[in-house]
Amino acid sequence: MDSSVGYGVVLVTTASIEEAEAIANALVEAQLAACVSLLPIHSIYIWQGKLHKEQEWQLLIKTDLALFPTLEAKIRELHSYEVSEIIALPIVAGSQPYLEWIAEQVKIKE
C-alpha cells in the first residue's frame, strides 16, 4: 500500500460539459493531472438559503497530491462557481502499473 502514498483523486463539479472539458483539458495539458473522467450527476444542495436541484458534471481528476496547490489554483482560475467543490481524496491502494503511469504523466516542478 505504501506505493500509492501521494496519489489521489480530486473531485470537482461544474455547471456544464463545456466547462468540465475546458478544465480537464487545461489540467492534463499542464501535466497537473494524468487523467480526468467526466460524469453527469444530479446535485441537491442549499446555496444562499435556497434548495437547488441541478444537473452538473463531476470531474474525477487523477494526480499526485503534491501538485494540489497548483492544481487548485488552476481550477479556481477557470471555474465559474463562486465557491467551487475542490476535494482531494488519497488513493490508499492501487495497481502499481497504473500508479506508475500517473507518475509519468504529471510533473512536479521543483
From TrEMBL:
Signal peptide: none annotated. Gene3D superfamilies: 3.30.70.120. GO terms for molecular function: copper ion binding. GO terms for biological process: response to metal ion. Belongs to the CutA family. This is Divalent-cation tolerance protein CutA. It comes from Hassallia byssoidea VB512170.
